[in-house]
Write a structure and sequence with these properties.
It comes from Deinococcus gobiensis (strain DSM 21396 / JCM 16679 / CGMCC 1.7299 / I-0). Pfam families: RPA. This is Plasmid replication initiator repA-related protein. The chain is of the alpha+beta class. It has three domains: about 290 residues, no CATH class; about 60 residues; about 80 residues, no CATH class. Helices cover about 45% and strands about 20% of the residues. The protein has 18 helices and 16 strands. The strands form five sheets. It has a five-stranded mixed beta sheet, with helices on one face. Strand 7 and strand 8 form a beta hairpin. Helix 15 runs parallel beside helix 17. The protein is globular, with a radius of gyration of 25 Å. The termini are far apart.
């Protein structure tokens, strides 16, 4: 059923209470501003919609956005936002290749989405990828060509091509499955142009419901000035029906439907400290929603947050500690705590969280590890009495040493892909992964053979030898 909404009102942000500030904290992950600002994912956990269309006016421009799913599918929604965000960062981590190609194991993609590694989520991942591949998007007047400072028309599938391996003929993912896909040219051009924003993916994945994660992603992008991505606002005000269209929530012109759909996400984002308040005003169709963002909400390096979670320290407490003490001090404190516990110098009597917090609050009460005290950030460095040798480059064997087999397989695939991406098919990646995980080959040996073959101009022969080895195993 087509949901067609025509809005010619002050759609973007209220100018009555805007506070501009510079973005100076960059989390490890990024999001594409075109995708997150326009929001192409319906902010509902489940839908039956096969198409939607919205139109609105903003800053003197008419913007039209539509989505049409395939005959047997629905439009992207809910969990699809997790997958699209993960794919954007996979593409960036791969060096942003011009062809937009991304290669990843299905189980690795589950991890990047923040999902459990299970058969249920493997099935959901397959469905999400299919929806993102089959849905056809059209954006008129709203897609930003930022380097040229122009607004353009774009028509694409988020995933333009999709290939993967499975054990059966039905197409169900398993732990061996490899995925090779190509992102849309418009998406690739947007990311490569640098039209991106920080994304606290650690915080996003910790939110409990898919629709909450979609709303967080949309709000975090709506704060950004689309013509100056280095600026953001602390307060946003929207007509409720217009905001429902931005979140792609069908309302049939009734504001209460949007309010009901977003009530639980609002509650969670306030409880988690991202929003200071959500204020509803007015009656009926004329209702507005004002978002007040928590100014002291602190982004934390994902690796540091994971360490604190391992010791049972709540996220809110970690953010407060980062604001008060800084990430450098806290990272040093965790390393010190871990070393003292491992050496038996510090014995945890209650909980690790309580012991770690006591060390952070009373650092002088604890000895430093045997290696000696770490220098404080502002302390002058002692002069060196001897020349320290330069660290040698690790050997290929050392590069894989100690890695779990699945991570060793991923590293091998990533390294070989630099030389063989035009020759490898998706089945070749599957085979490489299987051979490493099953212990049939050494990833270090195979990498050296592959690089040597590429240097000698024998790429085709290496690939054929690899496939023959797979056929005989």
């Amino acid at each position: 059923m087509m949901s067609s909404i025509h809005i010619f009102s002050s759609f973007p942000i209220s100018t009555s209470k805007i506070i501009i500030k510079t973005l100076n904290t960059l989390p490890r992950h990024l999001d594409d501003l075109n995708l997150s600002r326009l929001n192409l994912i319906v902010a509902l956990d489940q839908v039956e919609m096969q198409e939607w269309s919205v139109m609105y006016e903003t800053q003197g421009r008419i913007v039209r956005i539509s989505c049409t799913a395939s005959v047997k599918s629905t439009v992207p929604h809910g969990l699809d936002s997790d997958v699209s965000a993960a794919l954007i960062n996979l593409y960036i981590e791969a060096g942003m290749p011009e062809d937009g190609r991304v290669t990843v194991a299905a189980t690795s993609l589950l991890h990047l989405c923040g999902w459990h590694k299970s058969g249920k989520y493997l099935g959901l991942l397959r469905e999400c990828l299919e929806r993102l591949h089959q849905a056809n998007y059209t954006v008129s007047g709203g897609w930003r060509d930022h380097p040229n400072r122009r607004w353009t028309h774009a028509k694409f599938h988020f995933i333009e091509s999709l290939n993967f391996t499975t054990l059966d003929g039905v197409g169900l993912f398993d732990e061996r499955s490899m995925i090779v896909l190509r992102l849309a040219d418009d998406v690739v051009a947007s990311i490569r142009s640098g039209y991106v924003k920080p994304l606290d993916s650690e915080f996003m994945s910790s939110l409990s419901r898919p629709r909450t994660r979609v709303l967080y992603r949309v709000l975090d992008a709506a704060r950004i000035d689309p013509e100056d991505p280095h600026r953001q606002v602390d307060t946003l005000t929207f007509p409720v029906l217009a905001w429902g269209d931005q979140c792609k929530i069908p309302s049939d012109g009734q504001a209460w439907r949007v309010i009901r759909a977003l009530s639980a996400p609002h509650e969670e984002l306030v409880k988690r400290g991202y929003l200071a308040d959500v204020v509803l005003s007015g009656r009926g169709r004329d209702q507005t929603v004002r978002y007040e963002f928590a100014r002291d909400f602190t982004r934390v390096d994902p690796a540091l947050m994971r360490k604190f979670r391992e010791y049972g320290v709540a996220d809110g407490m970690v953010r407060r500690l980062v604001r008060e003490l800084g990430e450098v001090f806290l990272a040093d404190a965790i390393a010190r705590f871990t070393a003292l516990v491992a050496s038996g110098v510090l014995v945890v009597r209650k909980t690790k969280a309580a012991a770690l917090m006591h060390l952070i609050q009373h650092p002088d009460d604890y000895p430093y590890p045997a290696a000696g005290p770490a220098a404080s950030p502002g302390a002058p460095k002692a002069p060196r009495t001897v020349m320290e040798p330069l660290l040698a480059e690790p050997t290929v064997e050392e590069d894989f040493d100690g890695l779990p087999l699945d991570r060793a397989a991923e590293r091998l695939i990533r390294r070989l892909d630099l030389h063989y991406r035009k020759l490898f098919k998706v089945g070749d990646y599957d085979l490489l992964r299987f051979q490493v995980i099953s212990g049939q080959v050494s990833p270090a040996v195979l990498l050296k053979e592959g690089i040597a073959a590429a240097a000698a101009g024998r790429r085709e022969a290496f690939v054929e030898q690899l496939r023959q080895a797979g056929d005989s195993s």
